[in-house]
Structure formats: C-alpha cells, structure tokens
Amino acid sequence: MTNTPKQLGLLGKRTDVLQLPDADIEYRPGFLEHAAAMALFEQLLAETDWRQETVQVYGKSHLTPRLSCWMGDAGLDYQYSNMTMSPTPWSELLQTLKARLESATGDKFNSVLINLYRDGADSNGWHSDDEPELGESPVIASVSLGAVRDFKLRRKNKSGESYSLALEHGSLLMMRGSTQRYWQHQIPKRAHAGPRINLTFRFVY
Ligand SMILES: O=C(O)CCC(=O)C(=O)O
Ligand SMILES: [Mn+2]
User: Fold this and answer.
1) For residues 129-144, b (16+ Cβ closer than 10 Å) or e, as one string?
2) DSSP letter for each residue of 64-96
C-alpha cells in the first residue's frame, strides 16, 4: 500500500509534557493514525536505501547496531558519531510527512535521520543530538513506527536523574531548548522486539 498525502492522517490531540529539569520534551502518542503509520512503516521498510554505517570509537571501527539512511536538502553534510554523511534526496513520502510535522509543530526541518532497529538486538547507545551544525538549541522531531521500544534519558551532570518512556507506534517525541545540552538518550537492547523504524527530523544550519 502506498501512502498518499491524504492517508498520512494525524490523530492524537494528547500531549504529555515531561517534567524534567533543564529539558523541553513533549510526547504525543497517536500522532499518526494507526493504519497510516503501518502503511508508512511498510513503505519505508521496502523503499529506504538502508545502510549499516561504520563508526570510530576510541580508534576502532565498529558497525552501528542498526541500519540507517540520512535524507535531506541537497548540499547538507552532517557529522554523526565521527562520520560525514551526505543526504539522500527527499522522497515524496517523507517530504509530505515533513510538511505535516512543520504545520503541527511550527518548526522547520531540512533533514531526517531514519533508523531501522531490525530486532531487539539493535540499539542506539547513550548520546545527545548536540552536533554543532544543529545549533545552540536543537529541535528534534522523532516519529516512531513499529515495535515499541524504551527511550531512556539520563542527566549529564551525574546527579543520577533518569527517565524512561516507551515510544509507541505512530508517536511523536519533540525535544527542544536545552534538552541536548543537559541530557543524553539511548534505545537499549531488548530481549524480544520486532522491527522498528524511527525518524528524527532535524534542522542543520
Ligand atoms: O530511535 C530513537 O527513538 C532515537 C534515535 C536517535 O536518538 C538518533 O538517531 O539520534
Ligand atoms: Mn539521538
């Protein structure tokens, strides 16, 4: 099934504001209607140019424990975990989703990092989305499709403050303000999980 702009229906009106110090995080479950999110998931799974990137950690090469694709406006280059990525041109499908997100949030995006967690063994380690090209106060719009996975947050200041949130199919998580400066996030491995796709829309300066 192919998603047309009309089928990318928005549903949820509920927004949860996470009460975390020095963070600005909102969670909207049911941002995308279930069937539209399912069709989006299937289409992205089949049509995305998935790659397994290599990252350098302490001088050693590692394959990332997930597949990804970086899409965005021509001419944007992006540093991510010591790799430079040139974006794939926008697909019609994701241009449509971007426009929906922009009108729903009032923010502008020029790129998206798409991650595929093939099963529970795929993960995303502790990090902040704080690359200099995302500016002082990065705005990240994160759409989740498929299997529910835990999104963990921890304070950088060693206070021990942490938070865990289950990111559901069709949900939107918005991170703004000082969130990336003071907090890290991760998607830990999980014993049993089906495939999940996450899209983080960003604005690269
Ligand atoms: O999969 C997720 O929900 C988070 C992805 C993420 O943090 C990233 O790609 O920077
Ligand atoms: Mn991130």
Assistant:
1) bbbeebeeebbbbbbb
2) -SSEEEEEESTT--EEETTEEEPPBPPPHHHHH
Kindly report the length of the chain: 205
Beta strands in 105-187 (DSSP E): 111-117, 124-127, 140-146, 149-155, 162-167, 171-176, 183-187
| Residue of 79, 198, 202 with the most ligand 1 atoms within 8 Å of its CB, for mutation | 198
Q: Determine the residue type at 44.
A: L
Q: CB under 6 Å to ligand 1: residues?
A: 113, 115, 124, 129, 142, 144, 151, 167, 185, 187, 198, 200
CATH code: domain 5-202 is 2.60.120.590
Q: Which atom of ligand 1 is found nearest the CA of 196?
A: 1
- Mean pLDDT per 10-residue segment, the chain (205 residues): 48 83 96 97 98 89 95 84 80 98 97 98 97 95 98 95 97 98 98 98 96
**Nearest bound ligand to the CA of residue 80:** 1
Q: How far is residue 115's CA from residue 90's CA, in Å, rounded to a whole number? A: 15
Q: How many angstroms is it from 169 CA to the middle of ligand 1?
A: 14
